[in-house]
């Protein structure tokens, strides 16, 4: 290697160093450390760790608790991702109209992006509350008062889904609005002159051209759904009936989780979640990417 | 087939008048060019014929139907946009078929029609490609094929050649003229390019600030411009304009086209050659008068040996002098 090439390489490394340091400290080291921790059992308050080895990953994967949490997590993703995407896209379509006062609605629609999950959860906790909650008092369903939506084993998870969808709606709306605004107006006008009605313009112009953005939104919403934690911790604590809303993330971090005092097991579950997210994202990306057109 | 009639059409946007009381009759199967500089209202006029804008006042007629308030798809028109407006995710075949699909035509019939249109424009080999895989000229032809596939009565074209390079623009101009003859439709063509207007239009409507300044066959407009504006818009280099009293006694502005400027050893106006541009078959000679007026003469290459810095005299035959009112700029016949 020539001298100038050495200097270039050295210079490149110097420029890369800050990023490498940050990535190393906050991503690579924790990941390796977690994988290593996942080989042990124990290590909670008493600090005693016992080496178990790689078999712990397989044992955890086969356990009822993990499989149940995986089922709940995937079900929550199934509830929130398609609906969240539809809500974001629907709001973006509504806000794309050039009507008076639309700026106000755009602000309202995107406002949830500035609301923390904790605040959103508390707001919905009040709405869901069985005796003084608004929903229980305006909707004619007995289950809302007794036992309450968050106490009902069949409704608690969908209710959490509603909170997640609401919390993510601002983000989805902003991204979809940006995608829609980048579509040239000529295409709509051309389709209009050619005789396409509103629905045909939506399916033939809007949807295909926001396709790549929709793939991005689906990936992000899925990752967020698989990581849902705060809503569960604040609204249901993993219950009702102990584990009806216990997702994988709650299994790892939740104070009422069955493995809350074993950081070895927690690390194992975290690594498994990482692998599952990687697989799901890759499948989605491969599957959806082929169906969309990139400019 | 049908003509287009604009009757006292006006369009205002937030207090600005884009099109002002335009009256224009476009005959059946005519190739009408709307010519004017940017912002003169020509595209707005076209969009009102298309139904993409509603007139603030006046009537738009297509054939014997008044189309104010009628949706574009009910007007029997097709439009070619400056950007071509091709659907990037659809193949050439699907792009051409789209107007037929939108009107509910069956698959077999529209495939057949799309192939016919593609054959007409030499696109048969490209049917499976997407717009991103085509050159500018090919995209332009796809946009034209999409316009002709439905065989509409009126074709509206909004500066369709402006994104092409000079060579391709020349070729496509010829193709459009031939297309107009083959499809036998009424063409309304918007451009700011006077060469397109001169070569393609059966008639040209020159617009300025929302108003039509002159309508007529291109050669007639070139030979008898109705105003200084029209005289300078058509022709490259533009018509020379002498202020009153400079070339001849009187109170009118005098316009002389560069090819009619006579450079001689004697004449009414002395000048100095500032620049000589050799274009092969001719020369453009830019002369400066003592009054700082600049005059451009177009002369055959072999006819003049004038060089930069030479003293010359400028003249023009009476029959080649156009007189305009000094205050309004309108043509004055003497």
Gyration radius of chain B, rounded: 23 Å
Q: Class of the largest domain in chain A, according to the CATH hierarchy?
A: Mainly Alpha
The second-level CATH architecture of the largest domain in chain A is: Orthogonal Bundle
- How big a fraction of the residues of chain A is strand? under 5%
Strand content of chain B: 25-35%
Q: Percent helix among the residues of chain A?
A: 55-70%
| Spatial ordering of strands, largest sheet of chain B | 6-7-8-3-9-10
- Determine the CATH topology of the largest domain in chain A: MetI-like fold
Q: For the report, how would you describe the main beta sheet of chain B?
A: 6 strands, mixed
**Could you name the ranges of chain B where pLDDT drops below 50 across 5 or more consecutive residues?**
none
Instruction: Strand order, main sheet of chain A: write it out.
Output: 1-2
What is the arithmetic mean of pLDDT of chain B? 92
Helix content of chain B: 25-40%
Count of strand segments of chain B? 18
Strands, helices and their partners?
The complex is a heterodimer of chains A (295) and B (334).
Chain A: H1 3-37, E1 40-42, E2 49-51, H2 55-62, H3 64-95, H4 102-110, H5 117-128, H6 134-138, H7 156-181, H8 185-193, H9 198-226, H10 230-235, H11 248-253, H12 263-289
Antiparallel strand pairs in A: 1-2
Helix pairs in contact in A: 1-12, 2-12, 3-7, 3-9, 5-7, 7-9, 9-12
Chain B: E1 4-13, E2 16-26, E3 31-35, H1 42-50, E4 57-62, E5 65-66, E6 77-80, H2 92-102, H3 107-120, H4 136-148, E7 154-158, H5 166-183, E8 186-191, H6 194-200, E9 203-208, E10 211-216, H7 218-223, H8 228-233, E11 240-242, E12 253-256, E13 262-264, E14 269-278, E15 282-288, E16 294-300, E17 311-315, E18 322-324
Parallel strand pairs in B: 3-8, 3-9, 6-7, 7-8
Antiparallel strand pairs in B: 1-2, 1-4, 4-5, 9-10, 11-12, 12-18, 13-17, 14-15, 14-17, 15-16
Helix pairs in contact in B: 2-3, 2-4, 3-4
Question: What does this protein structure show overall?
Answer:
The complex is a heterodimer of chains A (295) and B (334). Chain A is mainly alpha-helical and 295 residues long. Chain A has helices at 3-37, 55-62, 64-95, 102-110, 117-128, 134-138, 156-181, 185-193, 198-226, 230-235, 248-253, 263-289, and strands at residues 40-42, 49-51. Chain A folds into 2 domains: 3-51, no CATH class; 64-286, MetI-like (MetI-like fold). Chain A has 12 helices and 2 strands. Chain A is flat and about 75 Å long. With 334 residues, chain B is of the alpha+beta class. Chain B contains 8 helices and 18 strands. The longest helix of chain B is centred in the middle third of the chain and has 18 residues, at 166-183. Chain B is globular. The A-B interface holds A 184, 186-187, 189-197, 200, 204-205, 208-209, 211, 293, 295 and B 50-52, 72-73, 77-79, 81-83, 85, 87-90, 98-99, 102-103, 130, 132, 146.
């Amino acid at each position: 290697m020539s001298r100038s090439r050495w200097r270039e390489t050295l210079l490149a490394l110097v420029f890369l160093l800050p990023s490498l340091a940050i990535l190393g400290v906050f991503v690579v080291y924790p990941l390796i450390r977690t994988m290593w921790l996942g080989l042990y059992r124990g290590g909670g308050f008493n600090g005693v760790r016992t080496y178990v080895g790689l078999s712990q990953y397989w044992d955890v994967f086969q356990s009822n608790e993990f499989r149940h949490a995986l089922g709940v997590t995937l079900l929550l993703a199934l509830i929130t991702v398609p609906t969240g995407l539809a809500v974001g896209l629907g709001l973006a379509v509504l806000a794309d109209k050039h009507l008076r006062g639309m700026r106000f609605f755009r602000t309202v629609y995107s406002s949830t992006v500035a609301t923390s999950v904790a605040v959103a959860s508390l707001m919905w906790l009040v709405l869901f509350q069985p005796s003084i909650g608004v929903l229980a008092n305006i909707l004619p369903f007995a289950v809302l008062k007794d036992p309450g939506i968050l106490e009902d084993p069949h409704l608690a998870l969908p209710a959490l889904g509603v909170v997640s969808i609401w919390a993510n709606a601002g983000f989805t709306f902003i991204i979809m609005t940006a995608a829609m605004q980048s579509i040239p107006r000529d295409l709509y006008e051309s389709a209009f002159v050619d005789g396409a009605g509103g629905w045909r313009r939506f399916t033939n112009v809007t949807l295909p051209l926001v396709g790549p953005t929709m793939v991005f939104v689906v990936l992000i919403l899925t990752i967020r759904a698989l990581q849902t934690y705060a809503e569960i911790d604040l609204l249901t604590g993993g219950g009702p009936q102990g584990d009806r809303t216990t997702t994988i993330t709650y299994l790892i971090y939740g104070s009422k989780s069955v493995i809350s005092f074993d950081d070895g097991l927690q690390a194992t579950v975290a690594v498994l979640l990482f692998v599952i997210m990687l697989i799901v994202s890759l499948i989605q990306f491969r599957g959806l990417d082929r169906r969309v057109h990139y400019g | 087939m049908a003509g287009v009639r604009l009757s006292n059409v006006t369009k205002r946007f937030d207090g600005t008048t884009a099109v002002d009381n335009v009256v224009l009759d476009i005959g059946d199967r005519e190739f009408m060019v709307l010519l004017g500089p940017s912002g003169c209202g020509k595209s707005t006029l076209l969009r009102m014929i298309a139904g993409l804008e509603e007139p603030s006042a006046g009537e738009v007629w297509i054939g014997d139907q008044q189309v104010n308030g009628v949706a574009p798809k009910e007007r029997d028109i097709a439009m070619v946009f400056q950007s071509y407006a091709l659907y990037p995710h659809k193949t050439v075949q699907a792009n051409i078929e789209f107007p037929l699909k939108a009107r509910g035509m069956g698959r077999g019939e529209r495939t057949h029609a799309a192939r016919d249109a593609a054959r007409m424009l030499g696109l048969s080999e490209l049917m499976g490609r997407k717009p991103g895989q085509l050159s500018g000229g090919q995209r332009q032809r796809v946009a034209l094929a999409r316009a002709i596939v439905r065989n509409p009565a009126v074709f509206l074209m909004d500066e369709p050649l402006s994104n092409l390079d000079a060579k391709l623009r020349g070729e496509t101009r010829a193709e459009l003229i031939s297309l107009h003859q083959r499809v036998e439709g009424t063409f309304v063509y918007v451009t700011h390019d006077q060469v397109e207007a001169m070569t393609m239009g059966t008639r040209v409507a020159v617009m300025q600030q929302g108003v039509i300044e002159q309508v007529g066959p291109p050669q007639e407009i070139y030979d008898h411009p109705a105003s200084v504006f029209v005289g300078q818009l058509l022709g490259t280099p533009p018509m020379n304009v002498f202020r009153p009293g400079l070339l001849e006694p009187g109170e009118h502005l005098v316009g002389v086209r560069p090819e009619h400027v006579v450079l001689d050893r004697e004449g009414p106006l002395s000048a100095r050659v500032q620049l000589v541009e050799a274009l092969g078959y001719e020369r453009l000679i830019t002369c400066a008068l003592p009054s700082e007026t600049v005059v451009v003469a177009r002369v055959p290459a072999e006819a003049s040996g004038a060089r930069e810095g030479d003293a010359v005299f400028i003249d023009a035959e009476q029959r080649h002098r156009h007189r305009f009112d000094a205050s309004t700029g309108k043509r004055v016949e003497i």
